[in-house]
Automatic annotation (TrEMBL):
Full-sequence portion shown in this chain: 631 to 897 of 897
Protein's name in the database: Bifunctional diguanylate cyclase/phosphodiesterase
Domain EAL per the UniProt entry, residue ranges: 23-267
Organism: Pseudidiomarina aestuarii
């Protein structure tokens, strides 16, 4: 939780008072979340640096435990990964995001980014499941970007690369999320079948105060682009940060400065 923005805490202040007594309590509670239809997707705009046009939205999972009170995914996704409940949860996310992607196209061409769960990704039927969900929802893979973290790649790199190749053959695009926070080795970056790199917000937020963050952001943009990956700056909160990454040639931006994640109806 390096330099986790204070805004982040504010957003979820209401849910912070609420604690699970045990992981068993949380487990049955998560089961309820699915059954009682308390899951929601919120969407955050992603803009192009050149002209500030909205090119897509990232789908971010929310658990509306009581009306208007949202539990943050960072509070329940790690546990859901452990109990296996992430599978029905993640299947719900994909179905909903694909249905919403169909609606979003009415605005113009939009890419909807969906976060991958490690457990779901590692199941042998994962790619088939996505294919089937496309058919059921009428969504096109060209409208979807899959966001994966380095931890997915670390576990079994060769297997992960094979799955990513298959997903790209299916015409999904792939983005590497939270870049810079993991075990980022530049040597494997060039082996990865993917389209985009998302620079973690901790580096963007340090741009004004830390020279090391400026150097890192600038180098990541250069290296990623030399490998033909587009670059997204995450967590852009100020016009200065937007200007800085744009001047460095970054391709896309996302962050509170352009819009917080909200329900689709509230965009
Ligand atoms: P992430 O994929 O890195 O998502 C970006 C997080 O940064 C989101 O937190 C978003 O609300 C927050 N954010 C966006 N712009 C700003 C900004 O300008 N400043 C600050 N301080 N924060 C910003 P959120 O929604 O709480 O999600 C946390 C994490 O939970 C996500 O990180 C992702 O790893 C995971 N997650 C969210 N939805 C899903 C999902 O549907 N499936 C899976 N497997 N994981 C999900
Ligand atoms: Ca993400
Ligand atoms: Ca991220
Ligand atoms: Ca993250």
């Amino acid at each position: 939780a390096k330099r986790l923005g204070h805004n982040h805490v504010q957003v979820y202040q209401d849910s912070m008072s609420f604690q699970f007594k045990s992981s068993a309590a949380m487990r049955s509670s998560l089961q309820e979340a699915i059954e009682k239809q308390q899951l929601r997707l919120h969407y955050q705009p992603i803009v192009r640096c050149n002209d500030l046009q909205v090119v897509g939205y990232e789908a971010l999972l929310r658990w509306e435990r009581e009306p208007g009170k949202f539990v943050s995914p960072s509070e329940f996704i790690p546990l859901a990964e452990m109990t296996g409940q992430i599978i029905p949860l993640s299947e719900w996310v994909f179905r909903q995001a694909f249905m919403d992607a169909v609606e979003f196209q009415k605005e113009g061409p939009r890419k909807i980014s969906v976060n991958l769960s490690t457990l779901h990704f590692n199941r042998s039927e994962f790619a088939d499941h996505l294919e089937q969900t496309l058919v059921e929802t009428g969504c096109k893979p060209e409208w979807i970007e899959l966001e994966l973290t380095e931890s997915i790649l670390m576990e079994n790199t060769d297997y992960a690369i094979a799955v990513l190749k298959r997903l790209r053959e299916q015409k999904f695009s792939i983005a590497l999320d939270d870049f810079g926070t993991g075990f980022s080795s530049l040597s494997y970056l060039k082996r990865l079948p993917m389209d985009k790199v998302k620079i973690d917000r901790s580096f963007i937020q340090g741009i004004r105060t830390h020279k090391s963050d400026r150097v890192l952001v600038s180098s990541v943009i250069k290296i990623a682009q030399s490998l033909d990956f587009a670059v997204v700056a995450e967590g852009v909160e100020t016009p200065q940060q937007a200007e800085f990454v744009t001047e460095l040639g970054c391709n896309y931006m996302q962050g509170y400065y352009f819009g917080r994640p909200v329900a689709k109806e509230d965009l």
